[in-house]
Amino acid sequence: MQSSGGASPPGRPDPSPSTTESGVSRRLFGKVAYGVIAVAAIGTATTYSIRAASATGDLSKNLTLIAPAGAGGGWDGFARETQQAMRLTGAANNAQVVNIPGAGGTIGLGKFSTMDGRADTILATGTAMVGGIALNDSPVGFSDTTLLARVSEDYDVLIAAADSPYNTLDDVMTAWKKDPEGFVWTGGSAGSVDHLTIAQLAQLGGIEGSAITYIPKSGGGEAIQTLLAGTTDFASTGFNEVSDQIDSGRVKALGVAAPERIAGFEDIPTMSEQGYEVTLTNWRGWLGAPGITAEETTQLVGLLEKTRNSAEWKDALTRNQWSDVWLTGQAFADFIVEDTKRIESLLKELGL
């Protein structure tokens, strides 16, 4: 683990969402602001050196941001950009980032679920955690936290080596349909947004998920190396991870999984405009600890909203090619349910 020093309240979800018509299990619903939630026991946990601080009073004085991943990853970058914007705006002058990596964010989630009433600590969350909960059959989920806000999202891009004979997504899909097992794909960990993006492309192309040959890597850099070495044919990875390599011509982009073309890279078509409506995005947001009060929840959402509205955060969005997707309250809870249904369906398609 590594660390570095230094709105309106959400609505109330259905108090008893054990099994709904969506078929999503109870552990995937979150407590939004009010009511009581059950805290899952996860046994004796490793002691993490998260700063001891008062969980009451002015939460802007001391705030710990947990990134449930290692240093240098997407969640870490999101947490540190949030930390920097909070400091510069005064939303939280003494904010620190703590890393608790592992298992699609569920190691950090498991530890966080034991921090009952700790309003001075928040946990980064997102698409990867939704997949991690399902893939790892996690004993804890969003119901063991307090939902605060969805903040930003970024998009995957399909890339190939610069000398690849494939120049469009349609070129790729046409060849893939003819030989479903003849291509090797790469991206992030199994069950990641990268992997799920490929699964969604396969669904849209009528290709069985079991036919996908996928080699997981730790990030865009490693994925590019496999393309250049010829050990893989295509990679799906976060656009901001490889934009400089695309710009330099080292690799070529065949399509971006975004609703519209990305500013500064308008020559790269979206997957949707090429006839493949890939809608999966890599969203990120924040969770509060279980058992915090409505007043503490309101204060935390307010701190996050102040940060989100700042010039410093808007600069971070531009630099990282992120989009603003602010969402709180019942709308955020409903979004989690729908995102879970979609990701569980894609994982099933992959046989995971």
Automatic annotation (TrEMBL):
What InterPro entries does this protein map onto? Answer: BUG, Bug_dom1
* Pfam families, per database record: TctC
Top-rank taxon, per record:
Bacteria
Residues covered by region (Disordered): 1-24
Q: Which PANTHER family match?
A: TRICARBOXYLATE-BINDING PROTEIN (PTHR42928), UPF0065 PROTEIN YFLP (PTHR42928:SF3)
Q: What does the sequence similarity comment in the record state about its family?
A: Belongs to the UPF0065 (bug) family.
Task: Supply the name of the protein.
Answer: Tripartite tricarboxylate transporter substrate binding protein TctC
- Species: Brevibacterium metallidurans
Q: What is the lineage of its organism?
A: Bacteria, Bacillati, Actinomycetota, Actinomycetes, Micrococcales
